[in-house]
Specification:
Elements: H1 10-22, H2 27-40, E1 47-54, E2 57-64, E3 72-74, H3 78-85, E4 90-92, E5 110-118, E6 121-130, H4 138-152
Antiparallel strand pairs: 1-2, 1-6, 2-3, 4-5, 5-6
Helix pairs in contact: 1-2, 1-4
């Protein structure tokens, strides 16, 4: 069985990140580049939020999509905080089935949280929302993980 290719082209995005880094872009600019380019990939990327970990708090540092009131999330709270607490990525195909879900938007139906890691250290996460249930298959999750890994090397 072959899986469909991902909507997101991680190699192209990582090359853009490396180019921006080489030209002196700072952390905030790199994070915004990721958010903007991921959302520009189109559905299922309705909203892309990049949080960095500061102590026991995830802080929103860049996003593209609908604004969110969740600019600071304690570790352990919601799907984003749970991903850090459990040191694992979370793919929630139906957010209405998640008791810990913190809604960024009432339209969101699926969420993918991929940790940004350097070795064993968690630096933050890429949080992707979709307006369609079951939006993030294995190929899409792997593509976001590649971007997170590429970003981690530059932070």
């Amino acid at each position: 069985m072959t899986t469909a290719p991902s909507v997101l082209n991680p190699d192209k995005l990582i090359r853009a990140l490396q180019g921006a880094y080489a030209k002196g872009s700072r952390r905030k600019e790199l994070l915004q580049l990721v958010a903007t380019r991921m959302r520009q990939a189109g559905p299922p990327y309705t909203g892309v939020y990049l949080y960095l970990l500061h102590g026991a708090m995830l802080e929103l540092e860049a996003f593209d999509g609908r604004p969110t009131e969740h600019t600071c999330i304690p570790v352990g709270k919601g799907l984003c905080g749970r991903a850090v607490a459990e040191a694992r990525d979370i793919n929630a195909p139906d957010v209405s089935a998640e008791t810990e879900y913190l809604a960024c938007s009432v339209e969101t139906r699926a969420e993918l949280v991929v940790l940004i890691r350097r070795g064993a250290d968690i630096l933050g996460q890429i949080d992707v929302d979709s307006d369609v249930e079951n939006s993030f298959d294995e190929a899409e999750e792997a593509a976001v993980r590649e971007v997170a890994d590429g970003l981690a090397a530059l932070l």
